[in-house]
Amino acid sequence: MSNYTAPAAPTATPAAPAPPPEPAQDGPPYLPQTAILGGVPTLALDGPICAVFLAFFLGGAILNMTIYQTNRRHRYKFLFSALLFGFCMARILALTMRLVWAAYPTNISVAIASQIFTAAGVLLLFVTNLVFTRRILRAYHPFFGWHPLVTHAFNLLVVLLAAVLLLVISATVQSFFTLDAPARAADRAIQLAAAAFLAAVAGLPLPAAAAALLAPRRTRIDRFGDGAFRTKFRLLLATAALLFAGAALRAGAAFHPAPLRAPERWYHAKPAYYLANFGVELVVVYAYTLARFDRRFYVPDGSRAPGHYSCAAAAEYGGSAAAVAAALAEFEKGGGGGGVSPGASKRSSAWSGRWSSAAAGKGGRWPR
């Protein structure tokens, strides 16, 4: 009888657990095919970050509404304080929707709403910088800045911003509700064109303000607001550079998508997402608010032609009608023969005559 024992059969190595299956999708909305900027939020990581931003944006909303109401009680109208209040409230809503998405990560409808609210709010800051750029251009080069073509170009740009926003919202929503390849290709083309356009608009104040500063002037500066103009330039250029950096990063991420299951790229990571969106915008809001942009970029009501910024400011502060009319005439005289638009000159003269007549019945003082 043999004592030989057959060796035991080798034990099989247990297989790694299979990844959880994708949720079955019988209909729309469908999961995106590429990585999302910032990824899918989680309460453990995104919750504290969103809470901090919520607190700061709430503080910005309170500050700007307080400034707006205080100014309004003194009959000092500066609507951009109210606009920044609205922007902060929009950002509070966007962050709240991101927290809801973190609580319900498989709810694609909440994800769509969160992305739309995040993308839409920043346009208010773009419009603010465009208006401030136009004011600086009109101050340094009044007869060019007040030219009807330049005025219409700025107005058209604001209209295009609103139209692009509507197109992006439509394309984003449709991309979640269709599997048709041509339709998705059209949606992506709209999103890429919009991202490039928004980045260009965000950066437009940089060359425009630089050109206004460096181009030779034919008149004296038509000053507005409080403080030195170099501070206005620095504030505008700094905020425009920050907004351009954020828009450029978002555009770069749109032009270089990553597959949904591929390793995360740096521009899709959460630090890039929060810095390019909420971080940049928070710095811009507080930079304008704490620098009292309601004083620095204020222009008097009724300004419609070259010379009105500084002359109407004198009117609001009670300067004599004769002195302000003389200042306006001197400003027009200093414009140089070829630089004065006939239409602008007529508007300035009519404005001066109307205010002078009104002042005549008030003891030679400008009406308040």
UniProtKB/TrEMBL annotation:
InterPro entries: DUF3112
Biased composition (Low complexity): 1-15, 343-360
Keyword Secreted (UniProt): no
Keywords: Membrane, Transmembrane, Transmembrane helix
TM regions (residue ranges): 43-66, 78-104, 110-132, 153-177, 189-214, 235-253, 273-291
Annotated region (Disordered), positions in chain: 1-25, 334-368
Listed PANTHER family: INTEGRAL MEMBRANE PROTEIN, YALI0C10208P
Protein name: Uncharacterized protein
Species whose genome carries this gene: Schizothecium vesticola
High-level lineage: Eukaryota, Fungi, Dikarya, Ascomycota, Pezizomycotina
